[in-house]
Each structure stands twice: as C-alpha cells, then as structure tokens.
Amino acid sequence: MIRLLIADDHAILRDGLKNLFAFVDDITVAAEAADHEQLLDKLKQERFDLILLDMNMPGLHGVDLIARIRADDKQVPILILSMYSELPIVQRALKAGASGYLTKGSGGAILIEAIRKVANGGHFIEHALAEQIFFAAGVTGKTSLRHEKLSKREIQTLCLLGRGDSVSEIGAKLNISSKTASSHKCALMQKMGFTNNADLVRYAMENGLTDES
Asked: Can you tell me whether residue 182 is helix, strand or coil?
C-alpha cells in the first residue's frame, strides 16, 4: 500500500484527490497539509511513501520547499502536481529533488500511474513536459536557457526584476543591501548578455521566472 501525503492549499482539490484514490486498492491518503508548516510537521511525525506536492502554497514553497524537504528527508519521493507548466519551473523542481512532475490538467489515470512509478523509486514526467525538456536540451544535451548559469541569489534577483521590483525593493525582500542587489543585477545581466532592463524583464516573463523566487 502506497501511503500518500497530499500537500496543497486548496481543500477542494485535496478532497477531489481523496475521492479519486478511494477507488484505488494500492494507494491511501495517509495525511494532508495546507502549507509548509503542516507538511514539515507531518514528515516529523511519520513516514510516507510519497509526497504529492503543489508548487505554490502559502509561505515556503516551490523549489525552496523541495530543498527543505530534502534537507530533512533525503529518501521520501516527491511528485509535483502543479498548475505551472513552464519549462524553467519544471527543470528547477526536478533539479531541487523532485522525482516527477505533472500539471493539474493531467487525467486521473496518469496521476495514479505516476504515483506508483515514483513511489517505487522511478521518475515520471508528463509527456508534453518531457518533450519540452528534450527539445530544449537539443541533440548535444546542452540547455539553451541563459539563466541556468546564474547563482541561486542571481536567479532570485532575476525573478524579482521580472516582477517589476526595483533594486531597493529586491534588497528588502532578500534581506540584503541595495548595493549588493545592484551587484547581483549587474552580474546576471553580464552573464546573460543583456544590456537593458526591458530585455531582461521580457526574458523572465517568457521563461516563467516571475511565478516564484
């Protein structure tokens, strides 16, 4: 029996998933969480065979939450079930430690298949997303995404710039000085080959980097 922890801040979605799994013999919803605090508390209390995780919950979320889970438990498989289908977000989730990624538009049969595979140590990526990853990598396996050469702090700065934040606002949000934030901005623009803010913001928006920091 696969003991599942569902982490999503929408109760109606959690209820729908529980109704779906009620008809599946080898999957049971052992616990649920509406935010990162509940999720981390549940992980301290008991063991699960898989975490079904939303990418956008209140508080700590996304790749930062995946990294936190991995810091506490390196073994529990994580399957992302998200509304986001942008390639950079998918790649960052997998790189952070998720073993699979599905969008919320996936059918129930696909979700059940993914849970079984990931819970048993495998990987599962929704077909359309897997195609995007393959073609983005190209024949040589080299990614065409400029921002992957950036440091974590530079990516955070890029995300906030994409949202329209000023250097001073970025400094406040990242708890660094405006001067340091400005240095990160200059460094990332140089690494990515941008000479003006408009191109940088356009890149962030086109690559889904304004959805999370």
From this structure: helix
10-residue mean pLDDT series, the chain (213 residues): 97 96 96 96 95 93 92 93 89 89 93 95 86 60 66 88 87 92 92 84 75 48
Q: Which of 159, 138, 131, 145 is nearest to 63 (CA)?
A: 159
Q: Could you give the domains of the chain? A: 2-137 (3.40.50.2300), 146-206 (1.10.10.10)
How much is the pTM?
0.66
Sorted by sequence, the CB contacts under 8 Å of residue 32 that are 6+ apart come out as 5, 6, 7, 8, 14, 18
What Cα–Cα distance (Å) separates residue 162 from each residue in 157, 166, 191, 200, 204? 9, 10, 16, 7, 5
In whole angstroms, give the CA distance from residue 123 to residue 119: 9
Which value, in Å, is the radius of gyration of the alpha carbons in the chain?
A: 18
Count of CA atoms in the C-beta half-sphere (13 A) of 189: 17
